[in-house]
Amino acid sequence: MDIKKRLFHYIKPQKRNILLASVSVIIFLVSQLLLPYLVGKSINAFGTMDGTQFIIDIDLKAIIINMTVACILCFIGAVFDFIFEYIVNIMSQSIVKEIRDDVYHKLNNVPIKTIDNMQSGDLVQLEIGDIENIANGFLSVFKQLIQGVLAVLITIILMFLVNWILAIGVIVLTPLSFFVSKFVASFSHKHFKKQAKLMSDLNALSLETISDTDLVQSLGYEKASIEAFKAQDEKLKNEGKIAQFSASWTNPSTRLVNNTIYAIIGIAGIIMILYTASYPILVMNIGNLTSFLSYTTEYTKPFNEISSVMAEFETAQFSFKRINNFLNLSDDIDEGTVILKEPIKEIAFEHMSFSYEKGQHLIEDFTQVIKKNEQVAIVGPTGAGKTTLINILMRFYDPVDGKITYNGIDGTEISKKSLRSNFGMVLQDTWIFTGTILENVRYAKPDSSDEEVINACKQAHADTFINTLPEGYNTLVTAKSGLSEGERQLLTIARVMLAKPDIIILDEATSNIDTRTEKQISDAFDKMMANHTSIVIAHRLSTIQNASLILVLKDGHIIEKGDHKSLMAKQGFYYELYSSQFK
């Protein structure tokens, strides 16, 4: 969807609000723009011109009527101006909310590969920074645009009613403002684009530093981190200065042109007054000239006001382009239609190959069958493809060649939701969201009772530390506060204990837990996995001695397989890995 269609997509549901806002602003503008006309009538009620002489002939009744009507119009204008502002604010916030919802929805539906290839700071900028820019920029411009366009149209009509000759003169001179503003905007455009990119990079840098503050400080990297931030911030400052400075010229330059038009019209009006008696076609008097000059100001005011928010508009425009590009990304494709109605009894890798990039050789011609209730361990050096194998198994990525079958069905034919519902994962990286202990564990099974959650936590040996917290299971925790790394990992283990999936995947699941607790959890896992298929990735090989099948990976190939005892007897690569941990 191109940017114009996307904008129309968000504006279309607001047709009713746009209509109400337009009616309100028309009433407001008409009431306000009639004031110069009434003032001109009142001035004419003081007397008339006779050649170059002004003859005083006060019509008090006309003055009182005109001024009374003017006061009434001022009140009506204030009421409908409030209604207009109220509707526009509601409308703009509704649009921004819809954009925010769409970005978050897209964030949850794009392929894992897309997320892996984007900086986390860039994603935060999209969800927060860019949407704030749109809220600030488009709100300002939208209000000025609706009000400005209608003000110009109504003012043109009134100018022609006062004096058609001067009205044509104003319209002929108007393009000068457009040419000047377009020239300035074309210069600032490229700098706002660079500013948006630098802002995204700075956010990414900030987020990375905040997320790893403990590592930064432990390595004594504070000074280097600050210097890197200052250098990036300096680039943003310099580009921002140029962008804002260039955009700031729009308003003064258009004001200069508009004031010049005002002066020209004023001089022309005076000449017309002087020669009205000789040339009746001119038809000009002091009151009409006063009204017309006011209309000239009102006519040019929208151009000035719109140009004054050009900096915010440029920023909002680039933010909307970024969001539109993100929303145009393809969703995670799920062509699978088969729903697994029975537990997975067999997983078969059939000559499966995979690589993240073309030309890369990661996993090649991988063939293996995993039977129900088998406890399979995958070991190997860093970069052997262990975690990648799990990503493919869960269909976060699909094989480049070959296939994986589940109960004899090609994985690509099975619905991803149906497939993944059979798996439970405990990873090295824990995920805790803001909420209570109960809510965090219950995430794995939303309909579970408090008793079920507590039993799962007892199995995971998390119950002991939970009972020491101020509010126990109702203690509020976040991803970064309230719990240690090991305690967070115990909660993720409790989730799997609660869900009791058919297939359990453990990727260094006890890496942050002390040896005594690790032994207790291993015993609990052994009990839970007794009638379940399990796939374990481990670097501490002492934890997988009871596995029924150990697959040894190296360079994406199975180089050895068997149980612990048989692999040790071979004294091959597995033997070397295992023995190296005790040297």
Structural features:
583 residues; alpha/beta
Tell me about this structure.
With 583 residues, the chain is of the alpha/beta class. It has 21 helices and 14 strands. The strands form 4 sheets. Strands 8-11-12-5-13-14 form a 6-stranded mixed β-sheet, with helices on both faces. Helix 2 packs antiparallel against helix 11 (286-308), helix 6 packs antiparallel against helix 10 (250-274) and helix 7 (175-211) runs antiparallel to helix 9 (222-248). The longest helix is centred in the first third of the chain and has 48 residues, at 60-107.
What topology emerges from the helices and strands here?
Elements: H1 3-11, H2 15-44, E1 47-50, E2 53-56, H3 60-107, H4 112-116, H5 120-162, H6 164-173, H7 175-211, H8 213-218, H9 222-248, H10 250-274, H11 286-308, H12 310-327, E3 346-354, E4 363-371, E5 375-379, H13 386-393, E6 401-406, E7 409-410, H14 416-420, E8 423-426, E9 435-436, H15 437-442, H16 450-459, H17 463-466, E10 476-477, H18 485-499, E11 503-507, H19 515-528, E12 533-537, E13 549-554, E14 557-562, H20 564-570, H21 573-580
Parallel strand pairs: 5-12, 5-13, 8-11, 11-12
Antiparallel strand pairs: 1-2, 3-4, 3-6, 6-7, 9-10, 13-14
Helix pairs in contact: 2-3, 2-5, 2-11, 3-5, 5-6, 5-7, 5-11, 5-12, 6-10, 7-9, 7-10, 7-12, 10-11, 16-18
